[in-house]
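Many groups now describe folds with learned vocabularies. In that spirit, our science desk offers one protein's residues alongside their backbone shape tokens.
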Amino acid sequence: MIDGHTKLFGFLAHPAAHSLSPLIHNTSFKVIGINGAYLAFDVTSAGLADSLAAMRTMNIGGFNLSMPLKTDVIPLLDEVTPRAERLQAVNTVVNRDGRLVGDSTDGQGFIDALKTNDITLDEKVITVLGSGGAGRAIISAAVDAGARKVYVFKRTNDLFESRKEQLEAWSNVVEVLPYEDEELMIKAVDQSQIIANSTNIGMAGDKSLPVTPAVLNHLTSNHIVTDAIYFPLETPFIRAAKKQGSHTYNGIGMLVNQAAGSFLEWTGQRMPVDQVIQAVHEAVRQREKK
């Protein structure tokens, strides 16, 4: 029931209509009984400063952002957390009495999704495929969670050396390697307990795999394989890893748990993650039918 006391939150992106964030947060408000509403706003980089001014003026509680707004927003904020500073990306903004504070909950969402399945990264070896926004969040969180080694595979292009320097400066447990080097990837997979795909390979109709058949053959029942993609629910990589006997998890856990981090910062309450995951699963199933 929306009334004069309803607190507004939102998602800023271009485009924004596809987002599952309104479903996630409005389901949470309803289950817990919080008088809040979460809407999606189509905002470009050009309109971002005005959007933040409106947030302050109208005392909006907070909002989430997608790329490229995750980086564009940083100069417009009053403060960013250390993990957002490290990533140079903000997915969550909290309005603290007109002071806008930016944070990144993406990586912690990955960690918390694993924790719900009694999996930790402490002293584990993880191989991360890709070093884009999701990949860097996972890498950063894995370092903070006590991973013994973090192998990162990145495409060899003009950004390779600078990205390698950036990520390896975070910790001496991080090693950035060429994505195209099949032999190195096999060695990394053989040493790893967790394989995390952070690329968009396999998304929404793409039948490709993020690894070669030779690498795939080195996946075993001792591996935990995750995919940051949640549409489709079962990517080609997840399907192939299952056939190898690996324990697999799609991106819904990370999606919901990163949102739970935002929710906690905004409301001080824990998101009803199980109920939200059920709602998101159903929404994605309906999208798959279309």
